[in-house]
Amino acid sequence: MGVRGLEAAVELAPGKACESSTERGPGDGQPVVILLGWAGCQDKYLAKYSAIYSQKGCTVIRYTAPWRMIFFSETFGIRSLQTPARQLLELLFDYSVENRPVLFHVFSNGGVMLYRYIIEALRTHKPFKNLRVAGTIFDSAPGRRNLRGALRALATVLASTNVLLKYFLLLTFATTAVVLRIVLYPLTRFIHESHYDALLKAPSRWPELYLYSQADAIIQ
Question: Who is most buried in 10, 117, 185, 208, counting CB within 10 A?
Answer without folding.
Answer: 117
